[in-house]
Amino acid sequence: MSEAAAPSEETTIRDAGIVSRSIAAGIDFGVVIGLMGIGYLSMAIILFAVDFREFRFPEVMWIFTASGFFVTAVLYLFVCWAVTGRTVGYAFLGLRLANAAGDDVPVVRILPRAAFCVVFPFGLAWVVLSPKRKSLQDIVLRTRVVFAD
Protein backbone atom coordinates (compact mmCIF):
# COMPACT_ATOMS: atom_id res chain seq x y z
CA MET A 1 0.00 0.00 0.00
CA SER A 2 1.21 3.44 -0.76
CA GLU A 3 0.97 6.21 1.74
CA ALA A 4 -0.62 9.48 0.77
CA ALA A 5 1.89 12.27 0.51
CA ALA A 6 1.91 14.31 3.69
CA PRO A 7 1.47 18.01 3.23
CA SER A 8 4.71 19.88 3.44
CA GLU A 9 5.42 21.54 6.76
CA GLU A 10 7.26 24.26 4.90
CA THR A 11 5.03 27.10 3.75
CA THR A 12 6.04 29.18 0.83
CA ILE A 13 5.77 32.93 1.04
CA ARG A 14 4.30 34.47 -2.10
CA ASP A 15 5.20 38.05 -2.97
CA ALA A 16 2.36 40.30 -4.04
CA GLY A 17 2.32 41.57 -7.61
CA ILE A 18 1.52 44.93 -9.15
CA VAL A 19 -2.25 44.45 -9.37
CA SER A 20 -2.89 43.58 -5.73
CA ARG A 21 -0.39 46.17 -4.49
CA SER A 22 -1.89 48.89 -6.70
CA ILE A 23 -5.42 48.14 -5.55
CA ALA A 24 -4.25 48.20 -1.92
CA ALA A 25 -2.50 51.54 -2.52
CA GLY A 26 -5.70 52.95 -4.05
CA ILE A 27 -7.72 51.85 -1.03
CA ASP A 28 -5.12 53.39 1.30
CA PHE A 29 -5.18 56.64 -0.69
CA GLY A 30 -8.95 56.75 -0.18
CA VAL A 31 -8.52 56.14 3.56
CA VAL A 32 -6.03 59.02 3.83
CA ILE A 33 -8.35 61.37 1.91
CA GLY A 34 -11.18 60.26 4.21
CA LEU A 35 -9.08 60.95 7.30
CA MET A 36 -8.26 64.42 5.98
CA GLY A 37 -11.96 65.05 5.33
CA ILE A 38 -12.82 63.97 8.86
CA GLY A 39 -10.15 66.36 10.17
CA TYR A 40 -11.56 69.24 8.14
CA LEU A 41 -15.13 68.56 9.22
CA SER A 42 -14.01 68.26 12.84
CA MET A 43 -12.39 71.68 12.59
CA ALA A 44 -15.57 73.11 11.05
CA ILE A 45 -17.72 71.62 13.81
CA ILE A 46 -15.47 73.12 16.48
CA LEU A 47 -15.64 76.54 14.82
CA PHE A 48 -19.41 76.22 14.54
CA ALA A 49 -19.69 75.30 18.24
CA VAL A 50 -17.52 78.26 19.27
CA ASP A 51 -19.52 80.89 17.37
CA PHE A 52 -22.39 79.62 15.25
CA ARG A 53 -23.64 83.09 14.32
CA GLU A 54 -20.40 84.06 12.55
CA PHE A 55 -19.67 80.57 11.25
CA ARG A 56 -17.98 80.11 7.86
CA PHE A 57 -16.32 76.96 6.62
CA PRO A 58 -12.57 77.35 7.07
CA GLU A 59 -10.50 78.09 3.99
CA VAL A 60 -7.35 76.02 3.70
CA MET A 61 -4.38 77.09 1.60
CA TRP A 62 -2.99 74.50 -0.82
CA ILE A 63 0.32 74.24 1.03
CA PHE A 64 -1.46 73.07 4.16
CA THR A 65 -3.42 70.56 2.13
CA ALA A 66 -0.25 69.17 0.50
CA SER A 67 1.71 69.07 3.74
CA GLY A 68 -1.37 67.77 5.57
CA PHE A 69 -1.66 64.95 3.04
CA PHE A 70 2.03 64.10 3.46
CA VAL A 71 1.84 64.03 7.27
CA THR A 72 -1.47 62.14 7.34
CA ALA A 73 -0.32 59.54 4.81
CA VAL A 74 3.05 58.92 6.47
CA LEU A 75 1.49 58.63 9.93
CA TYR A 76 -1.26 56.34 8.62
CA LEU A 77 1.22 54.00 6.91
CA PHE A 78 3.62 54.07 9.84
CA VAL A 79 1.01 53.31 12.49
CA CYS A 80 -0.68 50.56 10.46
CA TRP A 81 2.58 48.84 9.50
CA ALA A 82 4.09 49.19 12.99
CA VAL A 83 1.04 47.83 14.79
CA THR A 84 -0.23 45.07 12.48
CA GLY A 85 2.04 44.99 9.43
CA ARG A 86 -1.02 45.82 7.31
CA THR A 87 -2.93 48.86 6.16
CA VAL A 88 -6.64 48.84 5.40
CA GLY A 89 -5.84 48.16 1.74
CA TYR A 90 -3.40 45.39 2.63
CA ALA A 91 -5.93 43.76 4.98
CA PHE A 92 -8.66 43.94 2.33
CA LEU A 93 -6.42 42.10 -0.16
CA GLY A 94 -4.75 39.74 2.31
CA LEU A 95 -1.30 41.34 2.17
CA ARG A 96 1.25 42.25 4.81
CA LEU A 97 4.58 44.04 5.00
CA ALA A 98 7.53 41.76 5.75
CA ASN A 99 11.31 41.84 5.82
CA ALA A 100 13.44 39.90 3.34
CA ALA A 101 13.00 36.69 5.37
CA GLY A 102 9.21 37.10 5.57
CA ASP A 103 9.17 38.19 9.22
CA ASP A 104 7.97 41.45 10.77
CA VAL A 105 9.81 44.59 9.67
CA PRO A 106 11.79 46.41 12.39
CA VAL A 107 10.13 49.68 13.38
CA VAL A 108 13.25 51.68 12.46
CA ARG A 109 12.68 50.77 8.79
CA ILE A 110 8.92 51.41 8.77
CA LEU A 111 9.01 55.22 9.06
CA PRO A 112 11.51 55.67 6.18
CA ARG A 113 9.47 53.25 4.07
CA ALA A 114 6.26 55.14 4.78
CA ALA A 115 7.88 58.45 3.81
CA PHE A 116 9.48 56.90 0.71
CA CYS A 117 6.12 55.48 -0.41
CA VAL A 118 4.38 58.86 -0.02
CA VAL A 119 7.15 60.96 -1.63
CA PHE A 120 7.82 58.55 -4.50
CA PRO A 121 4.69 56.44 -5.11
CA PHE A 122 5.84 55.55 -8.64
CA GLY A 123 8.51 53.33 -7.06
CA LEU A 124 5.72 50.75 -6.93
CA ALA A 125 5.90 50.45 -10.72
CA TRP A 126 9.29 48.73 -10.40
CA VAL A 127 7.34 45.61 -9.30
CA VAL A 128 6.50 45.03 -12.98
CA LEU A 129 10.18 44.90 -13.96
CA SER A 130 11.51 43.10 -10.90
CA PRO A 131 11.72 39.30 -11.15
CA LYS A 132 11.23 39.14 -7.37
CA ARG A 133 8.23 41.54 -7.44
CA LYS A 134 10.00 44.24 -5.44
CA SER A 135 9.28 47.96 -5.56
CA LEU A 136 12.08 50.51 -5.29
CA GLN A 137 11.08 50.99 -1.66
CA ASP A 138 11.47 47.24 -1.09
CA ILE A 139 14.90 47.18 -2.71
CA VAL A 140 16.26 50.17 -0.80
CA LEU A 141 14.84 49.21 2.61
CA ARG A 142 15.02 45.40 2.25
CA THR A 143 11.29 44.80 2.67
CA ARG A 144 8.67 42.94 0.71
CA VAL A 145 4.90 42.74 0.46
CA VAL A 146 3.60 39.21 0.78
CA PHE A 147 0.30 37.42 0.90
CA ALA A 148 -0.60 36.90 4.56
CA ASP A 149 -0.98 33.42 6.00
UniProtKB/TrEMBL annotation:
It is found in: Cell membrane. Residues 16-140 form the RDD domain. Signal peptide: none annotated. Pfam families: RDD. InterPro entries: Pra-immunoreactive (IPR051791), RDD (IPR010432). One of its GO terms (cellular component) is plasma membrane. The keyword NAD does not apply. This is RDD domain-containing protein.
